[in-house]
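sorry to bug you again but im stuck and you know this stuff better than me. theres a chain ive been looking at and ive put its sequence and its fold in C-alpha cell form underneath. id like you to explain what the C-alpha cell line says about the fold, in plain words if possible. anything you notice is useful, everything is just below.
___
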Amino acid sequence: MIHTILFDLDGTLLNTIDDLADAANWVCAQNGWPQHTVAEYKYMVGNGIPKLVERFSPAEARTPDRLAETLAQFTARYDAHKEDKTAPYPGIPELLKELKAAGIQTAVFSNKADALCGKIIEHYFGPGAFSAVRGSRPGVPTKPDPTGLWDLMRQLNADPATTLFVGDSDVDILTGHNAGLPAMGAVWGFRGAGELTAAGAEALAFRPGDILDYINQQKG
C-alpha cells in the first residue's frame, strides 16, 4: 500500500521547458552564444540549474567565474519569466485532489533551486497543496544522490516500504532506487518511455490517472 508519493517537478507536475528554454536562449543571445532548440533543452535539464547553465554555455565560457556570472544572469531572467508559458500537465490537478481525498501524502523533490520551487508550486497549485516542497539546497548533493530525499522523508515520517517516487527522467528513477524506493516514470514529461524503461522504472504512467491505477494495484 502506498501512503506517500514524492514527485519530481519539471516534466512531471509542470511543463516548464518553454520558460527554461526561453530564459537560457535569452542569456545566450545577450552573450552572443549559439542558441538551442526546446528539444535540445529537454536533455540539458534534470540535474539542476547550475548544470543546465554549464551545458548551454560554450566551452570557452565554462570557467568557474564565468559560470557563476551566467548562473546569476539566468536565474534572474528565469525567475522573472518562469510563469510565462509554464502550466500543469493535463490531469495533474485532478490527480492531486484524488490523492488528497484518498489520504495519500504528497511532496515535491526537485533539482530546481529551492527558492524557485516553493514560489512556482504555490503559484500553480496554491498554498498547502503538498506536505512539503524541497528543491536543491546549498551543501546537499543533487539528484540522483538520495541524501536530500532521505532528509525529506524523515521530515514527512515517510516509510520507504510505503513510499513511491515519480519522475520523468533517468535521474528520477535512479534517485528513487538510490533511496530504496520504487520509481514510476512519467512518460508525458521531457524524456519518454525508452529512457525510463532503460533506467529500470517499476512502472510507467502514460497519463496521471495511471498513478492512481498503480496505487490501487498495490493494495492487492
Remarks:
- The CA atoms of residues 1 and 216 lie 8 Å apart.
